[in-house]
Amino acid sequence: MKNRAKKIALLSLGLLALLITAPIIYFFSLPDGSKLVAQTRAELRKEGFKVDLSEFDFSAPAEVQARVASLTNFGRNRTFAGSREIVRRHSVQQIIGDPLPMISPQSALVLWTQKQLELHNGVANQLQPDERWLAGDAWPLLRVSYESERDFLLPAAHAAISGPIRFHLDAKRGAGLLLPHLSAIKNFENAFTAATLIELHDGHKSAAWTNLLAATRLVTAWTPETTEISTLVRFACNAIAFKTL
Predict the structure, then answer these.
(1) Which pLDDT tens digit goes with each residue over 78-121?
(2) CA-CA to 109 of 20 to 30 Å: which in 29, 117, 118, 131?
(3) If you write DSSP's letter for every residue of 48-77 in order, what string do you get?
């Protein structure tokens, strides 16, 4: 009986040792992961694929570079900040909100046709005491803000309308590629939307059409560089342009 118990104990210890050492042996017998990655990348290159950002050509012709330069300068010499900027941004979002306020099951309130643009309480509560008058009508703020931006909105609108949009970038830095134009593009999309709504509200249909066309062209004419964030910005601009339309 004792010998049998010893054999069972030894067998159990052997099985336990096997269970412990087998995964370790298997792990170290696997091919080197870095070698597999290098092999896969080499195979993809042979098939014509680009596997590094630095392998892409993000250059643009000189004519295009000169034209789209105005699409990178949003915000220069802006005078609005703080709570007024918050109100301005939320006012535009309120106008292009999805869905529009429903009047009946078959009709909605078109906010840009309203004589006064009342702010939601959450936005109005962020106003400073001397700005509370804007709570009942934000159109004056939007109009003055638009006028302060007109000098750089007009050339930007012309740039967006008159040809393809592509930015000259240096991809040699790989993942360190700088994309300073993305924030400007998103801001111009919102600014063109605001300009469209204000011009419609003021009865200037030709100017409204120009700004609306510029807002849509920022999406349709732009060939974004092959980076995830650039595509996400374009998607965001597409949503804004769609709501504006």
Answers:
(1) 555 556 666 666 666 666 665 667 788 888 888 788 888 777 77
(2) 131
(3) T---SGGGS-----HHHHHHHGGGG-TTTT
Q: Which two tokens stand for residue 194?
A: 């605001």
What is the pTM assigned to this prediction? 0.71
d(CA 238, CA 185): 11
- Name 221's bridge partners: none
Q: What is the rounded distance in angstroms from the CA atom of residue 115 to the CA atom of residue 216?
A: 26
Q: Which amino acid is at 228?
A: E
Exposed (0-12), middle (13-18) or buried (19+): which is 159, by Cβ within 10 Å?
buried
> Taking the CA of residue 225 as centre, how many other CA atoms within 13 Å lie in the half-sphere pointing to its CB?
25
Which among 71, 203, 100, 233 is positioned nearest to 143, based on CA atoms? Answer: 203
Residue partners of 26: CB distance under 8 A and separation at least 6: none
